[in-house]
C-alpha cells in the first residue's frame, strides 16, 4: 500500500516552471530521498506535500484520502504530516520541553509523560528538557526538532536537508540514528537533500529531479548502477563514460571487451562504469594488452584510499578511427600505490551500463 500518491503536479512562479508533471508513489513505511541540483524543484515538492505551497494543477492523496484535487486543498495543520526544516526552527524563547510539547493537547501529567517519552525516543536525557535551544549543540537541536515533529504522531515525516549544517562525522551518525528511529516507528519518511551519498545510504527509494521534472525513481542501487542518462549518472557519483561498440552483451572500448547487462542498443553507444569497477595492477610490458594499459600521471592521496589519474595511450580502432589519449580517475587502496609515471594495467569488474 502507498502512503502518499502524487499525480501530475504542476507549479509555476511567474515565468519559472518549478514542477512539471511530477508523479510519484511513496510506499507506506518507506524512506524516500528526493535529490537534484539547486532549482530542480525538490524543495517546492516537499513544501507542496506539507501544505505550505499548493499546485497549479494535480492531485495529492495521503493514505487514500485526497489532500489536494480539483475541488479542495487541505491546509497544512490538518494534514497530520511532520516537518523538520534545515535549521530545526526551534522557538528560542521556549525550553526544550516546551518546544517538544508545543501544540500537545491533554493535561499536564500527560504532556510531561509524552515529552519524557519523546526525549528518550531521540536519545536525549530527560534533564535536557530544562535547557534552552541556544545551550544545545547542532545535533541536539535537530533531535529536539525531530521530537517536536513526532509529538503529533504524524502519518508522514518530511525532512528538509536536516543534516546539512552538521559536521561530517556528526551528520553520518545523526542520519543513521534518525533512519533507525523512523524505521522502528514505522513512519513513512521523505528526505530532501543535495548530498547524493546521504540520499543513497538513507533511502530505499530515490527520486532524481531536474528542471522541475522527475527524471528517474527507483531503488538507490538501481539508479546508481543504471541511470537513465549521462547527467543523472554524473550527478549520483563519479562516473567513467566511454564511447564503445556494442554487439550482443559485449561492449568494445578503450578498456577492452566489457560485458554489458541488457543493452538498450547495439552498435555505437556510450557506456558507464563506476570508478570502483576498475582495478589497477602493476603492469609488465610482456603481458600488455592493446586497450588496458595506462600511465600514472597524478596521485591524490586521502589516507585509506587515493585517486589515481591514468592516461590511456592513443590508439587506432579496427576501422581506422583515431582515438586520442584519455585520462581516467580510478580509486585505489592507500597501500601498494603505483609510483608516479609508472605503467599499470586496468581490469574491470561487473557489467557496464549502456546509456
From TrEMBL:
Biological process per Gene Ontology, one example term: quaternary ammonium group transport
One Pfam family recorded for the sequence: ABC_tran
Gene Ontology molecular functions: ABC-type ferric iron transporter activity; ATP binding; ATP hydrolysis activity
Coiled-coil region(s): none
SMART domains tied to this protein: AAA (SM00382)
Residue ranges annotated for the ABC transporter domain, each copy included: 4-236
CDD domains named in the record: ABC_Carb_Solutes_like
InterPro entries, per the entry: AAA+_ATPase, ABC_SmlMolc_Importer, ABC_transporter-like_ATP-bd, ABC_transporter-like_CS, ABC_transpr_FbpC, Mo/tungstate-bd_C_term_dom, P-loop_NTPase, Transp-assoc_OB_typ2
Secretion signal span: none
GO cellular component: ATP-binding cassette (ABC) transporter complex
Alphabetical UniProt keywords: ATP-binding, Cell membrane, Ion transport, Iron, Iron transport, Membrane, Nucleotide-binding, Transport
The name this protein goes by in its record: Iron(III) transport system ATP-binding protein
Amino acid at each position: 500500500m502507498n502512503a502518499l500518491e502524487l499525480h501530475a503536479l504542476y507549479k509555476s512562479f511567474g515565468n519559472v516552471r518549478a514542477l512539471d508533471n511530477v508523479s510519484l508513489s511513496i510506499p507506506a513505511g518507506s524512506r524516500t530521498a528526493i535529490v537534484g541540483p539547486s532549482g530542480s524543484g525538490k524543495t517546492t515538492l516537499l513544501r507542496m506535500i506539507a501544505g505550505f505551497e499548493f499546485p497549479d494543477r494535480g492531485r495529492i492523496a495521503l493514505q487514500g484520502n485526497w489532500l489536494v484535487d480539483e475541488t479542495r486543498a487541505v491546509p497544512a495543520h490538518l494534514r497530520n504530516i511532520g516537518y523538520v526544516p534545515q535549521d530545526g526552527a526551534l522557538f528560542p524563547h521556549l525550553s526544550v520541553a516546551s518546544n517538544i510539547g508545543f501544540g500537545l493537547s491533554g493535561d499536564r501529567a500527560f504532556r510531561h509523560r509524552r515529552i519524557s517519552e519523546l526525549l528518550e525516543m531521540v536519545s536525549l536525557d530527560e534533564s535536557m528538557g530544562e535547557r534552552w535551544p541556544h545551550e544545545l549543540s547542532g545535533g541536539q537541536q535537530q533531535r529536539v526538532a525531530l521530537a517536536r515533529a513526532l509529538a503529533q504522531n504524524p502519518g508522514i515525516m518530511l525532512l528538509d536537508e536536516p543534516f546539512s549544517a552538521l559536521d561530517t562525522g556528526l551528520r553520518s551518525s545523526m542520519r543513521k540514528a534518525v533512519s533507525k528511529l523512523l524505521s522502528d516507528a514505522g513512519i513513512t519518511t521523505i528526505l530532501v537533500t543535495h548530498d547524493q551519498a546521504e540520499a543513497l545510504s538513507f533511502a530505499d527509494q530515490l527520486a532524481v529531479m531536474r528542471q522541475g521534472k522527475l527524471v528517474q525513481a527507483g531503488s538507490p542501487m538501481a539508479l546508481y548502477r543504471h541511470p537513465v542518462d549521462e547527467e543523472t549518472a554524473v550527478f549520483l557519483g563519479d562516473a567513467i563514460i566511454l564511447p564503445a561498440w556494442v554487439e550482443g552483451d559485449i561492449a568494445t572500448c578503450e578498456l577492452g571487451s566489457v560485458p554489458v547487462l541488457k543493452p538498450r542498443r547495439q552498435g555505437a553507444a556510450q557506456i558507464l562504469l563506476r570508478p570502483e569497477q576498475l582495478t589497477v595492477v602493476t603492469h609488465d610490458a610482456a603481458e600488455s594488452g592493446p586497450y588496458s594499459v595506462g600511465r600514472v600521471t597524478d596521485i591524490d592521496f586521502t589516507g585509506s584510499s587515493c585517486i589515481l589519474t591514468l592516461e590511456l595511450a592513443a590508439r587506432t580502432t579496427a576501422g581506422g578511427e583515431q582515438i586520442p589519449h584519455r585520462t581516467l580517475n580510478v580509486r585505489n587502496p592507500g597501500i601498494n600505490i603505483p609510483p608516479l609515471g609508472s605503467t599499470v594495467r586496468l581490469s574491470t569488474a561487473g557489467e557496464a551500463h549502456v546509456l
